[in-house]
Write a structure and sequence with these properties.
- The chain is an alpha/beta fold and 657 residues long.
- It is built from 24 helices and 18 strands.
- Helix 6 crosses helix 15, helix 10 runs parallel beside helix 19 and helix 20 runs parallel beside helix 21.
- The chain starts with 6 loop residues before the first helix and ends in an 8-residue tail after the last strand.
């Protein structure tokens, strides 16, 4: 492990808190040190308050902040004298501790201080760094973990046996510090948890962390416990979409809400799930106890979701009897699936959560395999893990709830998604919490958004094979399919029937009608497995109820698509799939309506551009966003009992009325 400290970069950060931000970010950049909000850092600063008094303040990482991106606002300032008094109490419940910490904050708008605030306060050093370094955890999570740590570090570190984070941990650390700390002590190892380093400067504390973790990595190398070979039997190539979608449906049913399920089939994951000892090696528990909040205590082996649910309920009933206070059982659905054919499955309430779970378990696999080289991986006991999973503070968060986004855990497919109405539909669905796959013939679709809940696929929807591949990619990436917005289409130049060529007719029909038939047919088996029922919204046209001269092929194609939708509504109602149509008109903020075209059309009717845009009964302009918002609402519960509806979105068109 290399130090990333750079004098020129460090000079950009002002003051003691600024340097605390800098080195915190250096730690957060390395996922082998901390993952997704893990770890915490602090600095002790003497400063003057508003009435001129000098105070000792501990600035500690606040709840909800990630070390990789933390700013000064992410640190909570807490008065040290009161923290030191709290540390001397014989006992302090978590809820009491949280309350006491909040009463001693110097800024009311700062985030809640870390649950390890008191621990940071009692350590006699200005800068304190805490990580969950993979290399250190690998060594502690073995049968002879403490002996190995002693052998590795000697008196460089104080060693703390595992205990729950919070007040009890702070008390134990204070006791052990007085017993174990030596002049050479530069850190502290918490068994099955992580490692601390200290220093009088930000650079010193950071580089001591790098030094300690590097020693652990070198120890693993010397003991032939570093290099992991990745070779596996790649299962025969066949479509995995149906078993994945079925699994996602069953997990969603067990959880009580839709989930995102992503499968990872790189060789290192397949090798792990195909190990002969997978039944033993994977059923020990997470690498650090805080991971249980994300991954649950154990992964599901294979595809028996109900068996996992039964086992989880038994686990809860077994350990609730030892709990100090009442607990509400969390949902019993797995968060990790290990299957020899499907690979590593990661589950979350949204795409971001699923990505975090996958990241955590990727590191867990490496820790398990390296610990095995040291004589065998050994996680914490089930009672200890239960205590963390059902921690008082986590239960409080559960009680507060927090309403999830309306489409959280659901997956949508949008065609013609790179611009206009399609892009607006993507935005509306993302804003409501859906994971979205966008299809478009424009290659720019791949760069439309860089975020875990969007994936763009260049696709010619007239190519049946391309459509099938796109749907398969959607299911493999997010686990299934719940909503489809059929938006892609072509609006040709006006052409009277007497000059309409057969070639032009077929081209318009292939895009506006035939492609949508293939899409509807291919998504049907996945929409049947949508946890909240499948939904299709068809972007039709005013020309369906009110065709105009010169657009025979366009009007006929949209009318045929509308009729196809009505028939599908009749056939698929039994599958809990609903289909509805929107008939927009005069949507001018799309690619086909350039300023030149608008000016020409307005002039043709003797109108200004603005008059042309609002040439309807209500004298309003209809935008792509208007269409997208209605499409999203038609996928929501407001339209849960509506199918085969046709809704105009035209400001009132005289021909339609």
């Amino acid at each position: 492990m290399k130090s990333l400290w750079n004098d020129q970069e460090a000079a950009k950060y002002r003051g003691e808190l600024g340097l605390r931000v800098y080195t915190s970010r250096l730690l957060g950049q390395n996922p082998s040190l901390v993952l997704h909000g893990g770890g915490n850092t602090s600095v002790k600063i003497r400063q003057e308050n508003l009435v001129g008094e000098t105070e000792d303040i501990l600035y500690v990482k606040g709840s909800g902040w990630d070390l990789a991106t933390i700013e000064e606002a992410g640190f909570s300032g807490v008065k040290i004298p009161h923290l030191l008094k709290l540390a001397k109490l014989p006992s302090l419940s978590d809820s009491q501790m949280v309350n006491e910490l909040k009463t001693q904050m110097i800024k009311s708008t700062a985030p809640s201080p870390s649950v390890e605030t008191i621990l940071h306060a009692i350590l006699p050093h200005k800068y304190v760094d805490h990580t969950h370094a993979d290399a250190v955890v690998t060594i502690t999570n073995t049968a002879e973990g403490r002996k190995r740590i002693e052998e590795l570090y000697g008196d460089k570190v104080v060693i703390i046996p595992y205990i729950m984070p919070g007040f009890d941990l702070a008390r134990l650390c204070a006791q052990e510090w007085t017993i174990q700390a030596q002049e050479k002590t530069i850190g502290m190892v918490l068994m099955n948890h992580g490692i601390f380093s200290f220093g009088e400067t930000a650079q010193d504390a950071y580089e001591k962390m790098i030094e300690l973790v590097s020693q652990a990595e070198e120890y693993l190398q010397k003991n032939q416990a570093w290099n992991i070979s990745y070779s596996s039997i790649i299962p025969p190539q066949k479509s995995l979409t149906h078993p994945i979608a079925k699994l996602r449906y069953e997990v969603s049913q067990a959880a009580g809400f839709p989930v995102i399920l992503t499968f990872h089939r790189q060789e290192k994951y397949l090798r792990f799930v195909q190990r002969e000892d997978i039944q033993t090696i994977s059923q020990q528990g997470p690498a650090t106890p805080d991971h249980v909040i994300r991954t649950k205590i154990l992964p599901l082996l294979g595809q028996d979701v109900q068996g996992y649910v039964n086992a989880y309920e038994t686990y809860f009933k077994t350990h609730i009897t030892q709990a100090k206070d009442p607990k509400t059982m969390l949902d019993p659905a797995p968060r990790i699936i290990l299957d020899p054919e499907l690979g590593l499955g990661a589950i979350g309430r949204n795409a971001k959560d699923a990505a975090i779970v996958a990241d955590i378990y990727e590191h867990t696999i490496e820790i398990i395999e390296r610990s095995t080289f040291l004589g065998g991986y050994q996680a914490l006991s089930a009672p200890d893990l239960f205590d963390v999973e059902y921690w008082e503070l986590e239960q409080a968060k559960l009680a507060k709830g927090g309403k999830p986004s309306v489409f959280s855990g659901e997956i949508a497919l949008v065609t013609g998604a790179a611009s206009g109405i399609g892009k607006a539909c993507v935005n509306a669905l993302l804003q409501r919490g859906a994971a979205v796959v966008g299809l478009d013939i424009n290659e720019a679709i791949t760069d439309l958004y860089k975020r875990p809940d969007f994936y763009g696929i260049p696709c010619d929807i007239t190519d049946e094979t391309a459509i099938k591949n796109a749907i398969e990619t959607t299911v493999q990436r997010f686990g299934g399919l719940d909503m489809v917005i059929l938006n892609a289409g072509i609006f040709p130049a006006a052409c009277p029937i007497e000059t309409l060529s057969s070639e032009q007719w077929r081209r318009i029909m292939s895009i506006n009608l035939d492609a949508n038939l293939v899409l509807m047919r291919e998504v049907h088996p996945f929409l049947k497995l949508a946890p909240k029922g499948g939904r299709i919204v068809v972007i039709g046209s005013k020309n369906v109820p009110a065709p105009g001269p010169g657009v025979a092929a366009y009007s006929a194609s949209k009318a045929a698509l509308n009729q196809l939708t009505r028939v599908a509504a009749l056939e698929w109602g039994k599958d809990n799939i609903r289909l509805n149509s929107i008939h927009p008109n005069g949507v001018f903020d799309t690619g086909i309506w350039t300023e030149e075209v608008l000016e020409a059309r307005a002039k043709h009717y003797g109108l200004t551009v603005q008059e042309y845009k609002t040439n309807n009964v209500l004298k309003v302009e209809v935008t792509s966003q208007d269409v997208a918002e209605l499409a999203a609402f038609m996928c929501d519960s407001l339209f849960a009992k509506t199918t085969a509806a046709q809704i105009p979105l035209d400001g009132g068109n005289e021909r339609v009325i």
